Amino acid sequence: xxxxxxxxxxxxxxxxxxxxxxxxxxxxxxxxxxxxxxxxxxxxxxxxxxxxxxxxxxxxxxxxxxxxxxxxxxxxxxxxxxxxxxxxxxxxxxxxxxxxxxxxxxxxxxxxxxxxxxxxxxxxxxxxxx
Length: 130
Known about the structure:
The chain has a six-stranded mixed β-sheet, with no helix packed on it. Strands 6-8-10 form a three-stranded parallel β-sheet, with no helix packed on it. Strands 3-4 form a two-stranded antiparallel sheet. The N and C termini lie far apart (57 Å). The protein is α/β, with parallel strands linked by helices. The chain is built from two helices and eleven strands; from the N terminus they run ααβββββββββββ. The radius of gyration is 18 Å and the shape is elongated. β3 and β4 form a beta hairpin. The protein has helices at 2-10, 19-28; strands at residues 31-32, 38-40, 51-52, 55-56, 60-63, 67-68, 83-84, 88-89, 104-105, 109-110, 125-126. Helix content is 15%, strand content 19%. The chain has one domain (18-126).
C-alpha cells in the first residue's frame, strides 16, 4: 500500500490542473469553426477557465443550451456566443455595455447587477425574459 501511494504521488495525480490544462479540456468539448470560434452542443455553466482579466480568452460561435458567464468580473462580452439556444446569464459582472452580446437568445437574457449605462448592444431577439 505504501509503495502504491508513493507511486501515485510521484505521478502528480493529486496535483490540480493548470490554467492551460483547464482551458484545453474546455475547448476539446467544442467544435472549432473556420473563423476560429467554437460551437458547443451543450449548456455551459462554468466558463471561468476561458476568462482572464475580465475577458473571454476564446471566441464562441453557437451554444445550443444555456450559457452562464455570471460572477466572473467580466468587463466585456467580446467573444460571447452569437447564438444561444437556451438562457444567457451574464449577471454579477462589471459590464458597462452589452456590446458583443449574443444576437439571438432563444431563452431568457439575464444581465442584472452590472454597471450598465444603457441597453445598447442587447440581443436582437430574446425568446424569454429580459
